[in-house]
Write a structure and sequence with these properties.
- This protein is an all-alpha fold and about 130 residues long.
- The chain is built from four helices and no strands.
- It has a domain of about 90 residues.
- It is globular.
- The chain starts with a helix and ends in a 10-residue tail after the last helix.
- The C terminus is likely disordered.
Length: about 130
Amino acid sequence: MISKNVKIALVFTVIIISVYCFLIKLPFPLRKMDTQLHAIFYFSAAAFLNILFYVKKLNTHFLIFGMLFLFSALIEFAQEFSNTMVKKRIHGNFDPVDLKYNLVGLTLFSIVWFIYFLKSTPINNVRTNE
């Protein structure tokens, strides 16, 4: 079992790496699959956090979903802002299509998680009086 402090340190490290990677340009061969990479990243990020924190409650799952979508929007704004901070363009502009595919990745994982949630949640058998 991983301690809470290790989990927090791991999440913080992954956030720093993610921010850095989202603020640099993709290598040329990967630029044509940008939208798919966004969906895959956010699907994987949702899976990582839900598994790391062993999420069993809908509220917690939706909290992670919301935080990841907020993170995705903030990254898009940071990409736009980074172009004004640095003389050399390090990334493209704010792209609403990227937000759409971030949401696609999160939604696809939520469907998978919800199916798991339904299958793993015991159904309370209600006995009727006969």
